[in-house]
Predict the structure.
Amino acid sequence: MPITYVCGHRNPDTDSIVAAMAYAGLRKALGDDSYVPVRLGHLNDETAFLLRRFGAEAPQRLTTVRTQVRDLDIDRPPKLDPGVPVSRAWEMMQENPAWSILPVVREDGTLFGMVTTGRIAEHDMRGILDPTLRETPIFNVLSALEGHILNANDDAFETMAGEVTIAMPAPGESLRGVKEDSIVLCGDREEVVAQALALGVKCIILCQSSLAERYSGLDSPTCVIATPFDAWRAGRMLFQAIPVRLVAHVDSVVCFHLDDFLDDVRETVMQHRYRSFPVLDEADRVVGTLTRYHLIRPNRKRVVLVDHNEKAQSVPGLEQAEIAGIIDHHRLGDVETGYPVFVRNEPVGSSNTIIATMYQEAGLLPGERLAGLMAAAIVSDTVMFKSPTTTPRDRRMAERLARIAGLDLDALGKEIFSVSTADKPAADLLRTDFKDFHIAGHTLAISQITTTDSAAMLARREEFLEAMAQVKEKGGYDMALLMLTDVLREGTELLFLGDGEVIRQAFSLQEASPGGVFLKGVVSRKKQVVPALALLWG
């Protein structure tokens, strides 16, 4: 089955990471191993701490879901050694119409060249105009002719090359003009064989000849071969004995790698008229071939979105992927699909609350480690159940998961929000829990740092404002906001860059200074800050 990636949003928080792990775990428990949890960004300190605490590995990172060559059902034709006879290559091409072009690979699997039916036919026609055999291993010759060497065992022959002559019965001298490096084909004419031996030709091929026994054990620098074929067929098969390396395309071969994006591949393919292109892996080993046919209806990567449903927050290349499902607790965003998909969007405080409910509906319990992580994710996303997004179901599910994992939720919450971030650069902290929003033509960047000591964070106000200015300019945002949410004070110190009048009106303040305003009771980005701005802008 194709892999389905389960991913949270960019700049993932604990709820996003654990939700991906939990849903993939649920699918696996139901017998489907094709669901793989992934992350779209670096782990923040809190999530890294919790993964270490519960002994869990971080999901692998996914940078894009743009369609790649590895997503195609490419052809897997046989790969030829450079020494394989042309005759064998031709036989393989006749076995399957899709194998009219075969890759030729070195011993280590890397690409040597490509051999085509057209190239073989071209070589065959050239053999009529110029009947000269190129350097060919003797074993290839014997295999093609189904023959054997008559010389004494001490005579060793490695390769064969030279102009090919068929000595036909004719008045006068049959071998007139034949040179030493020639290959002579003849029948039962003993005088022709004797003359060829006297000339010291490269090779004599006895075709359906009764003379084979006479020359058995011959001690001569001329190789003598007996074949059951007649002279005409032997002559044709001789040219089919050459190794494919001599007829393969080896210069300027256009190839692709498994990680190449289909958009780039299409552009390159349109610039060339080749019918087939070799595909290489990360070690440059040949793994198959692709044609224009494979580009018509490519397989797309499958993804399940958890803890988000907006393109700007999701994995790059989402428009090229197949969205298999959405599990979220945020407002509905701008993700569109061309077909019905599974969607579960509920007004609760954490995505893990929804997934814990799905475990319950399936009659399953997550393991102790995963249950602990899911409980921690709910506590984190609901800010120890102080967020206005919190529902009774969040608390019930967190308590149930805590019992499975043997945890105390209050103690766990204090651990989570005591993770030190004091030594991290302001720019890194700003990206720890970062999301951008598009509301009524306005673009916003909103970061949130949840802490038990907002005073220590405010001491770095100027650092944060400088980092926010860089984010605002680089991203072209209308406003940049930073929420320093204090769990103990149950409120948020809001730093912002942009129109202060917007902040003043949105939160009904007497005045609003970019240096910071304290919003009592405001701890939720999605349910308090974003809706307030959306209401103001209509």
